[in-house]
Amino acid sequence: MGAQSPAPNVTGPTPGAAGRMIVAHFLDGRTIKGTTHDFLPNRPTFHIYVDGDERSKAVALSVPDLKAVFFVKDYAGSKERADVSGFGDARGFGRKAQVTFADGEVVCGSTTGYNPTALGFFLLPADSGANNTRIYVINKAIREFKWM
């Protein structure tokens, strides 16, 4: 057998098991879809493999530039499906909350970790049939937060 080549020098997260599918929404209205292996709440940066292509180089994202990070079941969603507004079939642990983003978008769900002085918090969407499985809401992108 021949000699093995050295392991590649990788910057950023190391691809391995499938990453978590996300759609990152920026404050300026842009979105980027991909997978992440190193997203952690209250950490100011993480990496994304655009369109889930883990053979490409991961792109660093700055959380303060974002409105929210949507963890999704798939990138396309369902164009035919109408999301349930309000609390529909509310699920999850924690208290019910309604978030109105600065751009006017409203999401409802439950949270155990809202702290207005933190970078952000996780919200479990009230509509269990939606494409979003959870949302990391960036506090500075919120116009109004209400406990329900």
Write the layout of secondary structure elements.
Elements: E1 20-26, E2 31-36, E3 45-50, E4 59-62, E5 66-72, E6 95-101, E7 106-111, E8 120-125, E9 132-138, E10 142-147
Antiparallel strand pairs: 1-2, 1-5, 2-3, 3-4, 5-9, 6-7, 6-10, 7-8, 8-9
How does this model look, in words?
26% of the residues are buried. This protein has one domain (20-75, 84-147). It is mainly beta. A ten-stranded antiparallel β-sheet has the order 4-3-2-1-5-9-8-7-6-10, with no helix packed on it. It is globular, with a radius of gyration of 17 Å. The protein has no helices and ten strands.
Summarize this structure briefly.
This protein has strands spanning 20-26, 31-36, 45-50, 59-62, 66-72, 95-101, 106-111, 120-125, 132-138, 142-147. The protein is an all-beta fold and 148 residues long.
Main sheet overview: 10 strands, antiparallel
Instruction: Find the count of extended strands (DSSP E, 2+ residues).
Output: 10
Order of strands across the biggest sheet?
A: 4-3-2-1-5-9-8-7-6-10
Ends apart, CA distance between termini: 66 Å
So how many helices?
Answer: 0
Find the structural class using helix and strand composition: mainly beta
How much is the radius of gyration in Å?
A: 17 Å
Shape: globular
Order of helices and strands: EEEEEEEEEE
